[in-house]
Every structure is written in structure tokens, then in C-alpha cells.
Write a structure and sequence with these properties.
This protein is of the alpha+beta class and about 625 residues long. The protein is about 50% helix and about 20% strand. The strands form 4 sheets. The protein has a 7-stranded mixed sheet with strand order 10-22-21-20-11-18-19, with helices on both faces. A 6-stranded antiparallel sheet has the order 2-1-3-9-4-7, with no helix packed on it. A 6-stranded antiparallel sheet has the order 12-17-16-15-14-13, sandwiched between helices. It starts with a helix and ends in an 8-residue tail after the last helix. The relative contact order is 0.11.
Length: about 625
């Protein structure tokens, strides 16, 4: 409990004690009024002040205004009737403040998950100078600098380990407690905690562009992206509050006037009391507070599990997802390609591999890296020139003066070389030297351990269709899809083809269904942006993922996709429960108040009681570990 909350609690206790004590002290007239105003002002002076400021700023219709009018009116009515009954007015303000305190505490609790994530923000970076470490602001560290991270310290900036080995705690980023080992040459991301050995790291980004900065910016701005439900509540409150104020005014004036016209007694006291009760009941606190709190709690609960959702609008869309489309490489498979065979080579296998690795040496594609890794020797880049990368087909380059073409069957056909089909499962890299077919290399990608279970869990979660898109051959694609239990598969696609396929799926789906695309975020940015909701998986350190996706899963576990959907659905269910519950109880109590059946005490329940129950329900969105 923070200082502000403690002060409010003290005010509530003091006011309640004084009110109870006054019930045992005989008093009347002006003295009784002064004595009872003491607890009223102790507990409610800030509400009265806010209402007054709202009137001055022409921002009249809010809950403070309703509370002020209702309680001041109740006091005025007691003075008019000279009954000295100020208890109801004090009780209304007292219980309202109890509700506000409870709501403040609940919001603080829901913020803790976000705050824990904010703990990944590093306070400093260590620069070694003259054999001594100097702490500097991470913003001052330039790209390419060597920083030192000691055991127990946070990694402040993304980089590559140049010296040392250690174990990292990435739980603040991924939600998983399993540590990660790093050695010399490994990439390392900011926000991790160094647990064991001393590390020297060469920074690859400035602090403002590092993973930790992007994640913090993403989380800090998540609450600014409102869902349709929140927009509805905001619009509802703008119309509802003036409407109930006018209704209360009509309730106070019209019936007595009608009585006078018909020759009966006016009954002003009765109808003014009913109008004041009506105002207390009408206060829309439960809706205005609990709906944003439900979404905020959902976002916080998701972040604690390594699921970063950029806003409550995306959380709402995720909850309505019925179709999930996957990229294959790096999403369902590990994206770790290995050379598993060299077939039909017209030259020595090692020489064919050397030509392929050299021709592909300028590419950062995983297949190119696998060829270079299989070759195993340093590549002399001076041997290769005139490199032409044909998107989705392969590479043509001059190596030692010879024209080397590496790619798929389409590339071979384009240059007039007749490719020999391969019956092995995997990505087939055909090679032609000086226009003559020279053989092919088989490269395979491993399916992730959790992929099959992830697809199974998605179907159990109510996903109606799973689709896989890949640039791989039909044989490889169908083999992976069959093993994982995916419903539809589209193969041999260029990046632009993937967008076309997603657009086709969007056109064919039902209007109320949402389509999610899951990719690694590096080369899938156009598709991530085009889908109803883009999910980047295994995206630690990927700028493209954080920028393009609506949801970022901070580790490589495909099972987190179904978890993210279940979290979103739980949160949306809670939101709808609160909307129907709050509006339903309000309407019933408003009718009872207008008919004179409900008194101020029922009004207090309708306002504060419903708010407390709705907030308690909203907090359930935080508890998502077992989903």
C-alpha cells in the first residue's frame, strides 16, 4: 500500500470512528450539524473539491459530481426536514471512498506484473578503462564498444560475447525460469540477468535500439490502444451520466408538480430523496473502472508469461481468432538448416559444396549459412563477384571466373539447365556451373519439439483451421504439415505470394472470425501487418518482429500461441461479465430507486458494492499461469 492509499485508509477509519461515536453523543440543532460535518468533510473533502473543479472547467458529469450532488442534497434535505439525520450522506461518501481505495489497490496490484517487467531496465553499463570498471549511462555507450557484465548484473545493451561464459536468467523476458547458457561468439540480448561468470560483450546496437528499450516502449504504450469495449464504455459514460442527471432532476420536480396540478400535496421531500437515491445508484463507477482494469490486468498477466500484447484492442482481436496461419521456417521448425546429402554431383562433392557456399557467401539466409557451415573453411570473398540474388529462386554469381547458379528448379529452368529431381525430404539446392547442371545438395530443417503439441492445443482451444505457408517444395511442406496435423498447406511461395494467400483466406473467412498470422518477424513483416493480428514468435532481439507484430512471444515455444489466445479469451469473458453484471444491477436498482423501494443504503450497494465485485472479477485476469 502506497502513501496515498495509507492516508485514505486513515481518513476512512477516522471518519467511521467519529460517526459511530456521534451516535452515542446526544446533540441537536447547529451543534449536531457541525459535529456530523466533521466526519463528512474528513472523508469527502477531495470529492467535493474535484466536483467543484469539474464545474469550473465545464467537465461536470462525472462520478465526483454525482457523489457531491447526492450527499450535499441528502444533507440539505435533513436540514429542511430538521430531523438531524446526516448519517446516510456520510455513509454514502464513506463507502464510496472505501470503493475508491479498493479500486486503487486493485489497479496497483495489476500494475505489479508490468512493474516487474520494467525491472529489466538497466541502470548502468560497465566500461573498462585502465583495468578498472566505470559505470556509465547505457545511452552513452556507442555501437561496437566493449562492455563488462558481472555476475548478478543486467545485460544493458544487445551484443555478442567476446570473452567469458555464463548462465543467463531470461525469465523477465520470456516468463520461463529455465536459464540459458552463453559462450564466446553467442548473441546476447539486453534485459537478461548474468548469473554466474563475467562476460565481455561487444555491443551491436545503441541502447535506444536495443531489445530492452523496444520492449519497455511497447509495454508502456500498450494501455493507450483502446479496445472496442473500452471505447463503448467511454461513449456510454458520456451519454449516460448527463441522461441520469436529467432523469434525477425530472424525478425530483415532475411528480410533485403533477400532484400540485391535480390538487394533492406536492411531496417534495419524498421525490427529492428518491432523486438523490437515483443519483447515487446511477454512478457508473463499476463500468468506468472495471473494464479498463480487466484489460490492464489481462495485459499484465500475459506479460508475466512472456506474451507481450501491444494493446487491449489486439487482446480483444486475439480472443476472437478462429484461423491461425503459420510461417514454417523458424516458427514451426527450428530454422537450423543442416546439409544432409550431396547427390548427382558431376564434380567432387566437397568442390560442389565449396562453389555453393562461396556463391551464397553474401546472403544472410539460413540456407546460405548452413552451406557455409557445412563447407567448414573461411571463404575468400575476393573470389566471388557479380552476385545476383533472384528473390525466392536462388543466387547467381561469378566464382573463380565461372558462373555458378544455386537455387531451386525454377532457377535451373530459367538458365536452361535440366535439374535432376531428388526424392529426399528437405530443401534441395540445385547447382549449375557455366550453365551445366552439376548436382544438388539436400538441406533439412528440424521440426521444433513443441510444434505438434502446439497445433493440438490450438484445436482444443477452438481454433477452426490451421494453415502453413512456406517457400519450400510441396514434398517438404506436405511432410511437415502431415507430421504436425495442420489442416491446409501452401508451398513454393515467394514473400509476396504469402501476402496474397493471407488475403485470400481473409476474404473467405466469416465476418466475425479473426485470422492470426504467426511468423519469426524477420522476413514476414508484410504478412504480419496484413493479418487481423500478427504474432511474432521467438522474437527476442528481432527489431522487425517488435515493429510489425501486434503480439510478441518472447521465446521459441510454439505452445505459447494457444496460451496467448486463452489469456485473451479469459480477459474478454471477464469484460463481458462485468458489463452485463454492472448494467443489469444498475437498471434494476434505478427502477427500484425511482419507485421509492430502494433507499440510500441500497444505493450504496448498487454503486460501491457493484464496483467492488466488478473489480474483484477483473483481477482474475491476472491469474493466467494455469491456462
Amino acid at each position: 500500500m502506497n502513501r496515498k492509499q495509507r492516508i485514505m485508509l486513515i481518513r476512512i477509519i477516522v471518519s467511521a470512528v467519529i460517526m459511530v461515536a456521534l451516535s452515542f453523543i446526544p446533540s441537536s440543532g447547529a451543534l449536531r450539524f457541525v459535529l456530523y460535518m466533521l466526519p463528512y468533510l474528513i472523508v469527502g473533502y477531495d470529492i467535493l473539491l474535484k466536483a467543484f473543479k469539474g464545474i469550473i472547467r465545464a467537465q461536470v458529469f462525472d462520478e465526483c459530481f454525482l457523489m457531491a450532488v447526492a450527499t450535499v442534497g441528502a444533507i440539505a434535505l435533513a436540514l429542511y426536514e430538521r430531523n438531524g439525520d446526516y448519517t446516510e450522506a456520510i455513509a454514502v461518501m464513506l463507502f464510496y471512498q472505501i470503493g475508491e481505495l479498493f479500486q486503487s489497490y486493485a489497479v496497483g496490484k495489476s500494475r505489479r506484473n508490468i512493474t516487474e517487467l520494467m525491472d529489466i531496465r538497466p541502470d548502468y553499463a560497465n566500461i573498462e578503462e585502465g583495468g578498472k570498471l566505470r559505470k556509465v549511462d547505457p545511452d552513452e555507450v556507442e555501437t561496437g564498444s566493449i562492455i563488462v557484465v558481472q555476475p548478478g548484473e543486467k545485460v544493458p545493451i544487445d551484443g555478442i560475447v567476446t570473452e567469458g561464459e555464463s548462465t543467463l536468467n531470461t525469465s523477465a523476458l520470456t516468463g520461463e525460469s529455465l536459464p540459458r547458457d552463453v559462450h564466446e561468439g553467442d548473441e546476447i540480448i539486453s534485459g537478461s540477468v548474468n548469473m554466474t561468470g563475467l562476460l565481455r560483450i561487444r555491443t551491436t546496437k545503441e541502447f535506444g535500439e536495443s531489445t530492452v528499450s523496444k520492449i519497455l516502449d511497447l509495454v508502456e504504450n500498450a494501455s493507450s490502444r483502446k479496445s472496442k469495449s473500452e471505447d463503448f464504455i467511454a461513449k456510454f459514460a458520456r451519454i449516460y451520466t448527463p441522461a441520469v442527471c436529467l432523469s434525477a432532476l425530472a424525478l425530483a420536480i415532475l411528480p410533485p408538480v403533477m400532484n400540485i396540478i391535480t390538487g394533492n400535496a406536492g411531496g417534495w421531500e419524498t421525490w427529492i430523496y428518491r432523486a438523490l437515491t437515483f443519483l447515487v445508484i446511477s454512478c457508473p463507477c463499476a463500468l468506468v473502472i472495471s473494464i479498463p482494469l480487466s484489460f490492464f490486468a489481462g495485459l499484465g498477466g500475459a506479460s508475466s508469461q512472456g506474451v507481450l500484447i501491444k494493446g487491449s484492442n489486439y487482446l480483444e482481436t486475439l480472443a476472437k481468432t478462429k484461423i491461425v496461419v503459420f510461417d514454417k521456417t523458424g516458427t514451426l521448425t527450428e530454422g537450423v538448416f543442416e546439409v544432409n546429402g550431396i547427390h548427382h554431383s558431376s564434380i567432387e562433392d566437397e568442390k560442389l559444396l565449396e562453389y555453393a557456399a562461396t556463391a551464397e557467401s553474401a546472403s544472410s539466409h539460413p540456407i546460405s549459412k548452413s552451406l557455409q557451415k557445412a563447407y567448414g573453411y573461411p571463404i575468400d570473398r575476393s573470389r566471388v563477384f557479380d552476385i545476383k540474388e533472384i528473390s525466392g529462386n536462388g543466387v547467381i554469381a561469378k566464382v573463380d571466373g565461372k558462373t555458378v547458379a544455386c537455387g531451386n528448379e525454377k532457377l535451373m529452368k530459367a538458365i536452361g539447365a535440366e535439374a535432376i529431381p531428388c526424392h529426399s525430404i528437405g530443401t534441395i539446392i540445385h547447382i549449375a556451373i557455366d550453365g551445366s547442371y552439376s548436382g544438388h545438395i539436400v538441406i533439412s530443417d528440424r521440426i521444433k519439439k513443441g510444434s505438434a503439441k502446439a497445433i493440438e492445443k490450438l484445436k482444443k482451444a477452438g481454433i477452426q483451421k490451421t494453415v502453413m505457408l512456406t517457400g519450400d517444395t510441396r514434398k517438404v511442406a506436405e511432410s511437415v504439415a502431415s507430421e504436425l496435423g495442420i489442416d491446409e498447406v501452401y508451398s513454393e511461395l515467394l514473400p509476396s505470394d504469402k501476402v496474397d494467400e493471407v488475403e485470400g483466406l481473409l476474404e473467405r473467412k466469416a465476418k466475425n472470425e479473426k485470422l492470426a498470422f504467426v511468423g519469426d518477424g524477420i522476413n514476414d513483416a508484410p504478412v504480419l501487418s496484413r493479418a487481423d493480428i500478427g504474432i511474432a514468435m521467438g522474437a527476442m532481439g528481432s527489431d522487425a518482429a517488435i515493429e510489425a507484430a501486434d503480439v510478441v512471444l518472447m521465446d521459441d515455444d510454439p505452445e505459447k500461441i494457444s496460451k496467448a489466445i486463452r489469456i485473451a479469451r479469459k480477459c474478454l469473458t471477464i469484460v463481458y461479465e462485468n458489463i452485463f453484471f454492472a448494467i443489469g444491477i444498475k437498471l434494476i436498482c434505478l427502477v427500484l430507486g425511482a419507485l421509492g423501494i430502494a433507499n440510500m443504503w441500497l444505493a450504496i450497494f448498487a454503486d460501491v458494492g457493484v464496483m467492488v465485485l466488478a473489480v474483484l472479477n477483473a483481477i482474475r485476469a491476472l491469474f493466467v499461469k494455469k491456462l
